[in-house]
Amino acid sequence: MNDTFLVGVDLALSSVRVTAYDENGDVALSGRADVDEPSAEGWEAALREAAVYLPNERTVVSTVGTSGTVVPVDARGDAVFDPQWYYETAPEQEARLTDLDLAEELSARGVSLSASSPLAKILRLREEHPDRFDDVEWILSPATWLLYRLAVPEGERWTDLETDWTNALKFGADVTTRPPEWFEPLFDAVDVAVDLFPAIRAPGTFVGHAESRLAEEVGLADAELYQGLTDGNASVLASGCLQPGDCSIVSASTSVVKYVSEEIEPHDALYYHRHPIEGYLPGAAFDSGVILRWFCERILDIDRDEGLKLARGVDAGEEPRLFLQGNRSPFFDPEMGTTMFDLWPGEDRSTDEARGRLVRGIVSSIALSEYTYFPLLEEHFGRDIEEVRLVSGGEAGRDDPFSWWNTLRASVWDREVLQMEPRATVGPLIPAALTASVYGDVDEASDRLLRVNGEVPVDDRLREAYRERKEEFADDWSRVNDLYGRLDR
User: Fold this and answer.
1) Which of 403, 392, 411, 397 is nearest to 316 (CA)?
2) Fewer CB within 10 A of the end CB, N or C, for the chain?
3) Do 142 and 276 belong to one domain?
4) Domain boundary among 187, 213, 232
């Protein structure tokens, strides 16, 4: 009988999910609850509702939360302000940050600044509510906040806090050092005390035992607590990106391309995370699923699945080209829109045929845009990418619209594509289980905790149809970008 349970807790904007796995990686119990109130109290209420109650065995717990969300608390862990969510912005403060003399050095050290950056939102809170801000003792990520909410008995002071380096990154961590540490010149430049932030440690570092009343109420009394991950990094580990050369794409509202490298080798089209276990995670992300859904629902007045059905009926090569860019695309232009089409409105086609061609253009161009990163990564790191782990909708080998899109992807990429079961709550448990000696090494942890749904089939007809087109796609994209830049001048 297994004597250890691994519990992952996912704090999202609108829900809390708790999953308990046995040592074989099978789900023992799970719970989910909506967050009715966007606050720390709302998270706690949802956690109580989603709680799972396990036999009195050893329990290893780790957490995952949205990256870039700010949780300011006082000396006893009570919220001074409601969470400042990852999507909220502080444009005035961001403008001052990007004007700093050390802005270029920040980029070289992996510290990115934007209107949604935690530091911009922290400055806004201090400027708009100076008296309340004086009560802030700690500035935390959701994942770190929950760990100490479970660890520290109510009413006791929160001291000597630590956080994992994936959650620290957006707050101002320098990932080029070993281990990562706060980039103090940035905090000095804006007069924010580094002491407001926990010390940075590796994901999976032991935090302590759960001793709070909340922990007892949700069935986690005396559980072992370990540092967690951001939601993005949790998805990357759950996709199987664990060792140098591993590559994955997580496709939902965005396409998130990740690769495991041994060192940081800067490239304009890549940003870096410190890998939760070993090495680094160069990657990129761009809008994809959100574009597909937006065009289907707002322009074509159909749902996404209906759009995919119509797209499936269009012959390969008959669709318009779509050029996508995110803020790390190889040809990024901040003045250029997210998408550009080569549409010919005068063609004599039915409404459904026109809709199908447009959606086919979107989904094939997303696959082509994703593909552009494989040769880039191969050339940049000198290693072939023969296998890609994919986390997306649909199931490998099924005959449904979303699975057809994944087959289109695999055919365009022309690589072995393994579709992974989306297990976000497993992500933070991999480094935690290694620290807790539940498994002997990364391979054993991967074999036990991850699930491969199957290999995504390649359609030879599609592979041949896109063979030349994918080689031309980046060149066409570059010319469109160059033309747009010259017209804009």
Assistant:
1) 411
2) C
3) no
4) 232
* Tens digit of each residue's pLDDT (9 = 90 or more) over 135-151: 999 999 999 999 999 99
Average pLDDT over residues 41-53: 96
SS3 60: strand
> What Cα–Cα distance (Å) separates residue 186 from each residue in 113, 155, 194?
11, 33, 10
Task: For Cα atoms 193, 195, 196, give the angle at the middle one, nearest 5 degrees.
Answer: 80
Please report which residue ranges of 372-400 form alpha helices under DSSP H.
Answer: 373-381
Say if residue 362 is in the same domain as residue 383.
yes
CATH assignment at residue 13: 3.30.420.40
122-148 burial code (b ≥16 CB/10 A, e <16): bbbbbeeeeeebeebbbbbbbbbbbbb
Based on the fold, state whether residues 142 and 251 are members of the same structural domain: no
- Are 423 and 451 within 8 A, CB to CB? yes
Q: How far is it, in rounded angstroms, from Cα 287 to Cα 228?
A: 26
Domains: count for the chain: 2
* 32-41, 112-121, 390-399, 474-483: least confident range: 474-483
d(CA 410, CA 105): 38
Average pLDDT along the chain: 90
pLDDT of residue 350: 87
CB contact burial 212-223 (16+ within 10 A = b; e otherwise): bebbeebbbbeb
Residue with structure tokens 């017209």?
A: 487
Q: Give dist(CA 412, CA 317) in Å, integer.
A: 12
Mean pLDDT of 92-111: 84
- pLDDT at position 339, please? 53
Q: Which region, left, alpha or beta, applies to residue 77 given φ > 0 means left and ψ of -120 to 50 means alpha?
A: left
25 shares its domain with 56: yes
Q: Do residues 272 and 145 both lie within one domain?
A: no
Q: Which helix (H) or strand (E) segment is 281 a member of? A: strand 280-287
φ/ψ of residue 322, rounded to 5: -125, 130
pTM above 0.90, yes or no: no
Is the same domain home to 164 and 266?
no
Cα-to-chain-centroid distance, residue 247: 14
Please say if the pLDDT value at position 489 is more than 60.
Answer: no
- Over the stretch 373-395, which tens digit does the pLDDT of each residue have? 999 999 999 999 999 999 998 77
Q: What is the domain range of residue 50? A: 4-232
Q: What is the pLDDT of residue 343?
A: 63
- The reply to whether 265 and 226 lie within a common domain is no
CB distance 163 to 198 below 8 Å: yes
- Per-residue pLDDT, 471: 78
Give the CA dihedral 10, 112, 121, 324, nearest 10 degrees. Answer: -70
User: Could you give the angle at the alpha carbon of 65 between the alpha carbons of 63 and 68, nearest 5°?
Assistant: 140
